[in-house]
Structures are given as structure tokens and as C-alpha cells.
Amino acid sequence: PHEEFNAGPDDYADFFWRVSEAVPEADLYYAPMSPSGNWRVWYEFGLPRRAIKQRASGLSVHLYGNLEQVKDTMAVIIPVADNKNIIVSELNFGAGQIVDKDWWARNELPSILDYLDRLYVKGVCYFSWVWPRPDGGLDQGTSVDARGSAVEEVIRGYQ
């Protein structure tokens, strides 16, 4: 459960460990927390670090923002992944942001995709959830919905 786990980093690592023991034939990707607040403790230390090192086939991560923000997050993830597969299961400019989505798509997204490709990231998913109101009901923020936007164009045309 990414982001919806109702306990702390050690509890998530213990849960992941138990699942990996129950289904040893499965390729399990460690996916505990989006980069916000004190997110690094979900990856770097103690039981979480051991669970990743000994039980994970790879990491499923979320990345938000511009190229520099993505690089900052990946600077933490890459050493933790220790040559294991990385899948970016959620990528966008960041919830709660007021941005020119088309500008971001044309000026940031290609560079982000190129950067992730050079890192041999196995897959990237643009997060395009359509809430009844932008950003899940927040009063501010640009919708991450990609329909009809430059995000669709860039992703379709990306080679």
C-alpha cells in the first residue's frame, strides 16, 4: 500500500517482509511513501533498509516537480535501490501546485524522462487522476489531469 499505510516505516517494512515470506516466488517492489515530510526514513534506515536490501525486487517511487526536484529525490533512491529495478509509479508536477501544466510538460517533462531513461528506470507512469475538484478537493492547485494537455502530446511523442 503506497501512501495509505496507517503506521510507521518499521511497521511497513515488517509488513513487506511478511508478505515476501508468504509469497517468495513474487517479485515485490518496495513502495512505502511519496517524497514529502520526513519521507527518507521510509527507505534509508534500519528495518526499512534491510527489507529493501534483502526482500525487495526493486523500488516503486513517486517523483514530483521539476528536473532538479526529481534529481534530488533520485539522489536518495538510487543508493537505496542498490542496482535493483526502479519503477516510477507516479510522476507529475506535484499536487497542490499552481503551474502552467502545458509549460511544465513541454519544458520539464522531456528532460525528466531523458534523465530517468539514462538511469535505466524500468517504467514511468504519469499520474493523471481526475478528482471531482483539482488536487482531491483542495481549494488551490492545477489539476494533474492530462487529457487534452501538452502532457499527452509529450508522452505520446516521447521516444
By secondary-structure content and strand pairing, the structural class works out as alpha/beta
The succession of helices and strands, N to C, reads HEHEHEHHEHH
Largest sheet: 4 strands, parallel
Radius of gyration: 16 Å
Arithmetic mean of pLDDT:
89
Supply the number of helical segments.
7
Chain oligomer state: single chain
Number of strands: 4
Parts with pLDDT < 50 across at least 5 consecutive residues: none
**Alpha carbon gap, first and last residue:** 31 Å
Query: What portion of the residues fall into strands of 2 or more residues?
Result: 5-15%
State the share of residues found in helices, binned by percent. Answer: 40-55%
Strand arrangement, major sheet: 1-2-3-4
Global geometry = globular
Give a brief description.
The protein has 159 residues and is α/β, with parallel strands linked by helices. Helix content is 43%, strand content 13%. It contains 7 helices and 4 strands, in the order αβαβαβααβαα.
What features would you describe in this structure?
The protein has 159 residues and is an alpha/beta fold. The model has no long low-confidence stretch (mean pLDDT 89). Strands 1-2-3-4 form a 4-stranded parallel beta sheet, with helices on one face. β2, α3 (67-81) and β3 (85-92) form a beta-alpha-beta unit. The two termini are 31 Å apart. It is built from 7 helices and 4 strands.
List the keywords:
single chain; 159 residues; alpha/beta; 4 strands; 13% strand
